[in-house]
Amino acid sequence: MAYSKGRSGTAWAAMRARVFAEESHCWICGQWVDQALPRTHPMSRTVDHIVQLSHGGAPLDRANCRLAHRRCNGRRAEPREPRRRPRRWVSVEATSL
């Protein structure tokens, strides 16, 4: 597993457990979060940083960590470059029929 600034180790595990114990609703959409869902489910629980770590947010500051749905947290992430689809090359023989 690759190192993720502020999101590994026992301090991060303790922060996650604290957020999961203290909060029950997604801070982004306001809906209840089912904390029993498997972690790959789009509506499962995650901890979101209010001020993103890439913008200087404190990774282990409780005031910067909130409960969010995985889907809400992902939609709030920084925009990425669109994925390019690979070109489909057509052989010359197929086009000259």
From TrEMBL:
Coiled coil: none annotated. InterPro entries: HNH, HNH_nuc. Residues 14-74 form the HNH nuclease domain. Keywords: Endonuclease, Hydrolase, Nuclease. It comes from the Bacteria. GO terms for molecular function: endonuclease activity. Residues 76-97 are annotated as: Disordered. This is HNH endonuclease.
